């Protein structure tokens, strides 16, 4: 994508004080071409917000989809994270997991909805994440099915704790999940161990489908890296926004 139109992006940096986390949290807000405050927009909330913008090139992808593919304009909210405590916030066994969930539902979403013209129906919100951010997005939607139903999971880290939580639900028919995993992720080492992400994603898919969730699932050549996920982002966005 070398078209200069794709690189003319409006990205606003915000910061809010979180009483749940006891600290400030930074956000990156992408506003689409032709942005107009009297209109209303669908919204994508991304975990690992800084990486989605810097390595996933999500704003450039969004411009291309809107300008050339006829996708209705949408807003992106990237929620930044301190990588040194990322697992504590994103993993269900993390000591900041519940607080971070509350920060999103009770602080970040109201902040965005008070300041930007985003639509407030759950069908108009999309949660997106890579690795632990993908599994966290699913956990958030399972717990708050009144707020979320659409999830983009790029090589989701569906550790045993996450699989057990999915299994504990009897009805997930309100959820629609876009899942992709790389075939070269069969022995990926994280800060909590070495995992076969292909097998974990297969198990998560099966559990979700058994509970009525609508799942779009793909296994492709790729590693547990942004080089892979960046290529998959346009299809993921089109799946919900097309």
Q: List SSEs in N-to-C order.
A: EEEHHEHHEHEHEEEHEH
- Most strands sheet: 8 strands, mixed
Radius of gyration: 17 Å
Strands, count: 10
Low-confidence stretches: none
Report the principal-axis shape: globular
Examine the coordinates and then state which fold CATH places here, giving the name of the CATH topology: Rossmann fold
Blueprint (SSEs and pairs):
Layout lengths: L9 E9 L4 E9 L10 E5 L2 H6 L3 H11 L5 E6 L6 H5 L6 H19 L9 E6 L1 H12 L6 E5 L5 H9 L7 E7 L5 E3 L2 E3 L1 H14 L3 E7 L5 H16 L1
Helix pairs in contact: 2-8, 6-7
Provide key terms for this protein.
two-stranded antiparallel sheet; 10 strands; eight-stranded mixed sheet; 242 residues; alpha/beta; 38% helix; Rossmann fold
Q: How would you explain this protein's 3D organization?
A:
With 242 residues, the chain is α/β, with parallel strands linked by helices. The model has no long low-confidence stretch (mean pLDDT 96). The strands form two sheets. The protein has an eight-stranded mixed sheet with strand order 1-2-4-3-5-6-7-10, with helices on both faces. A two-stranded antiparallel ribbon has the order 8-9. It has eight helices and ten strands. The protein has one domain (4-241): Alpha/Beta hydrolase fold, catalytic domain (Rossmann fold, 3-Layer(aba) Sandwich). It has helices at 49-54, 58-68, 86-90, 97-115, 132-143, 160-168, 197-210, 226-241, and strands spanning 10-18, 23-31, 42-46, 74-79, 125-130, 150-154, 176-182, 188-190, 193-195, 214-220. The chain is globular and about 45 Å long. This is Enterochelin esterase.
